[in-house]
Write a structure and sequence with these properties.
Largest sheet: 8 strands, mixed
Structural class: mainly beta
Number of helices: 2
Number of strands: 8
Helix content: 10-25%
Shape: globular
Strand content: 35-45%
Order of helices and strands: EEHEEEHEEE
Distance between the termini: 52 Å
C-alpha cells in the first residue's frame, strides 16, 4: 500500500520545534531616500516580481547568503511601497536566532538586496526606476529607517496593516 503525505504550506521537513513565525511589513517605501541616498520609484520591482514571484526572493538574515532564515509568501507593490509577508523558520541556528530576536522585539528591520536595471540621478540621490529584487533581509539597522516588519498572529497574517509601520 502506498503512503501519501500531505503537508500544509507552513510545514517544512526541517522544522523542529513549532510553527513558523509569521511576519509582515514594508521592505521599501516609494519616494523615500535611504541613508545611502537611494530612492525607489513606485513600480520599480514590478517586472522582477512578475518574473519570480515572492518565492523567487530569498529571506536572509543580515544579508548573509548562507543564512536563509525563512520564506516570503507574499510581495505586493501598493500605494505606500513594497509590502512583504512571510515566515521565519526554525530549520537552522540562524533561523532560530532571527526568530528569537524578532519575538523579543530586538530585530524588526528590513533591507532589500537588488541589482539596479534602470536608475537616474536627481542631485545627490539615485532614483531606482527598475530593479531586480534578489532578497529581502531581516536586519538590525535598515538603510531605510522606515522599512520595518512586525510579528503577526495567524488570523491577521492575510491582512495588510492599515497605515503600516
Amino acid at each position: 500500500m502506498s503512503r501519501v503525505e500531505i503537508r500544509s504550506p507552513t510545514s517544512s521537513p526541517l522544522a523542529t520545534r513549532h510553527s513558523p513565525l509569521l511576519i509582515q511589513g514594508y521592505a521599501s517605501l516609494w519616494g523615500v531616500a535611504d541613508l545611502n541616498g537611494d530612492v525607489v520609484a513606485k513600480g520599480a520591482f514590478a517586472a522582477s516580481l512578475a518574473k519570480t514571484g515572492a518565492g523567487g526572493v530569498r529571506m536572509l538574515h543580515q544579508h548573509e547568503s548562507r543564512a536563509a532564515v525563512g520564506v516570503w509568501d507574499r510581495m505586493v507593490e501598493d500605494e505606500r511601497g513594497l509590502f512583504v509577508a512571510g515566515r521565519i523558520m526554525d530549520w537552522s541556528a540562524e533561523g532560530r536566532f532571527a526568530e528569537a530576536l524578532s519575538r523579543a522585539g530586538a530585530l524588526d528591520g528590513l533591507s532589500i538586496g537588488f541589482r539596479s536595471s534602470r536608475a537616474r540621478r536627481e542631485g545627490r540621490l539615485r532614483v531606482l526606476v527598475e530593479a531586480e529584487l534578489w532578497e529581502v533581509s531581516l536586519v538590525t539597522f535598515p538603510m531605510l529607517p522606515g522599512a520595518r516588519f512586525r510579528v503577526v498572529r495567524p488570523s491577521s497574517a492575510d491582512r495588510q496593516p492599515a497605515g503600516g509601520r
